Amino acid sequence: MRGQRIAGIGVTTVAALGAWVAYAETQLKPTAGTFGLPGLIDMPTAESNPEGLITASVFRFPGALRITATFQVTDRLTGAFRYSRVPGVFTNGTALYDRSFDVQYRLLDEKGWRPAVAIGLRDFIGTGVYSGEYIVASKTITPRLRATAGLGWGRLGSHGDIGSPFGSRPALNIGEGGKANTDQFFRGPVAPFVGLAWQATDKLALKAEYSSDAYPRETAAGTFSRDSSVNLGFEYRFNKWASATGYYLYGSEVGLQFNLVVDPRQAPAPSGLETAPLPVRPRPSPAADPEAWATDWTSDPEVQPGVQTALAKALAKDGQILESMALSATRVEVRVRNQRYLAQPQAVGRVARALTRAVPPSVETFVITTMAEGMPTASVTLARSDIERLESEGSVEILRTASFSDPAAGPDSGLVPTPGVYPRFVWSLSPYGEASVFDPDDPLRADFGVQLAGRYEFAPGLILSGSLRKKIVGNLDESTRVSDSTVYHVRSDLVEYQREGDPSLQDLTLAWYARPAPNLYSRVTLGLLERMYGGVSGELLWKPVDSRLALGAELNYVKQRDFDTLFTFRDYDVATGHVSAYYDFGKGFLGQVDVGRYLLGDWGATVTLDREFANGWKVGAYATFTDLSQADFGEGSFDKGVRLTIPVSWTTGKPSTNKVTTVIKPLNRDGGARLDVDGRLYDTIRSTHQGEMQIQWGRFWR
């Protein structure tokens, strides 16, 4: 009773103070609940974060430990992945390390008297220990005060239910997890929940709610005492990236939470730290200097070599390599490898400026061809007069004058290789980190060390490369877990490679990239293709420069490497391969479907959806379904994961083509496992094609 009186006073106080400060300028901001998504405390709201926002939260109280990452996929759609440590009330006394996914969609926006309305699924794929569905409405009463009310099913309908309008709910079956709990959606008892949130100051928000989650198994096992249905909480924002939350829960417990916010559109480091580009050099008019416009220089055999040498030096200072060049009286084509700028239009713009200073005035047409892995991938044709005329204008104007084409579709006669470009050797010595998460015995383990990498380019498209790692500190080799997979261990013996592979020869390959025909790209790679497999891999990709669609095929024959990751192999080989379709849906959404045979010999398909931002950030998810049975696959039922790509330039503010990519997988199983070969064609060429170039064209004059 005492807890309920305290909670009642708290709710009344929040409401009264909210009305009193209705005139204030401070606006109520969405806050994270204990499940990571915008919410009250345990209960959801109909709020959404700004589109593209990524949040992470860690919540702890005696009833659970929850680590949640959320992503605002669109303005209305929110997704979340959660890793929880649940006391052993579901697994006969052993703590359950649970992985779950949530999704919420805002059906209606708040407008006038109408509240915002959202529908959501909590823990809809997995063991289902937190599974619940809800419909919720949120209404702003004053600029600082917002009220929420909703109806919940599953866990959210376990206290104070008002009936089962859609029939009974099947009993929870934890099983292997990983499957969508479709037979439970909006079934069983439904219960109401309500709450208030008040923005007290710019940094402090107060929250109160009436919870419809009974925590039946947790309280029955004595994990904690549920003495009240009212929860109280506060969130304090340290800055726009971090906040801390405290809760008084169910009349008996205290909970703490820490939240981080990342906006891919807002870099922590200022941009524009690169050196300024060369200014455009305008030509004199033909009338003012007719000799400068004469074309008799074309008969001088020393002009092109001189121009080519000067241009190559200027581009080298800008982090670009002039691979070849063709020069005539009115046209110049340069084939350039960009090694510095993540946004390809920025590289093209700088080449265009350099050309105005390098080639004679009679040259009016600039064809700038991008090279990737020795292949010409796309050409941008610009008029020199447009470059001179539009230098002080916006990038949109110069884009309207540009044309894109496939360099393999036209003649390449007259191209003169730049001396000294091939052969070419580069190497690097850099730190590396490797982490293992979601291991129930030790949820976070990691290694740190140094990596020596080298690359020798014999000729355009012919590349020998490799990398060697040496651990300095870490505990990845200390795991005692052994794979329980009942099928051949094509991936689940990862810990054995981590234990025995030190030092580790990560890869050692010879690759050949080529352009067999217009719109076609090819790759053949042989050697130690990745940490676990060696062999040969071949790929063919069809991708027109101006097309949203690309089609590819890959065929591999590989043997499994020994755990020491040197030059010996285990007694397992397999032919694997896929046909693939890639499609750019626009607005930053990229889809990919791969159909074929996986490393275990199982047949199936992988579906991937990525959200990419113009600055190179990418957040995506994939799921693989094969003919391997769920029983043979084991825990998780099918392969799935989330992948994240962060451009290095976003964190440093300095230009770089490097990116850091990580894949977060709930489990490392053997079904649906694919070869991890480097240099796949679609990712190699896509940034140089018209669609991606137009998205990033705003950096042309940078």
Q: What does this 3D model show about the protein?
A:
- The protein is mainly β.
- It contains eleven helices and 31 strands.
- It has a 13-stranded antiparallel β-sheet. The protein has a twelve-stranded antiparallel β-barrel with strand order 1-2-3-4-5-6-7-8-9-10-11-12.
- The relative contact order is 0.09.
- The model is unreliable at 1-24 (pLDDT under 50).
Structural class: mainly beta
Report the CATH architecture of one domain: Beta Barrel
Strand content: 35-45%
What is the helix fraction of residues, given as a range? 10-25%
Give the CATH level 1 class of one domain: Mainly Beta
C-alpha end-to-end distance: 66 Å
CATH topology of one domain: Porin
Shape: globular
Major beta sheet, strand line-up = 19-20-21-22-23-24-25-26-27-28-29-30-31
Which regions contain 5 or more consecutive residues with pLDDT less than 50? 1-24
Rg calculated over all Cα atoms = 30 Å
* Biggest pleated-sheet summary: 13 strands, antiparallel
Task: Name the quaternary structure.
Answer: single chain
The named CATH superfamily of one domain: monomeric porin ompg
Summarize this structure briefly:
The protein is built from eleven helices and 31 strands.
Q: How are the secondary structure elements laid out?
A:
Blueprint: H1 2-20, E1 54-61, E2 64-72, E3 77-86, E4 96-108, E5 116-126, E6 132-142, E7 145-154, E8 191-199, E9 204-210, H2 216-220, E10 230-237, E11 242-249, E12 253-262, H3 303-317, E13 320-327, E14 331-338, H4 344-358, E15 365-372, E16 375-383, H5 384-390, H6 395-401, E17 403-405, E18 416-417, E19 424-437, E20 444-459, E21 462-474, H7 494-500, E22 504-514, E23 520-528, E24 533-542, E25 549-561, E26 569-586, E27 589-597, E28 603-612, E29 618-626, H8 630-633, E30 639-647, H9 648-652, E31 659-664, H10 681-685, H11 690-695
Parallel strand pairs: 14-15
Antiparallel strand pairs: 1-2, 1-12, 2-3, 3-4, 4-5, 5-6, 6-7, 7-8, 8-9, 9-10, 10-11, 11-12, 13-14, 13-18, 15-16, 16-17, 19-20, 20-21, 21-22, 22-23, 23-24, 24-25, 25-26, 26-27, 27-28, 28-29, 29-30, 30-31
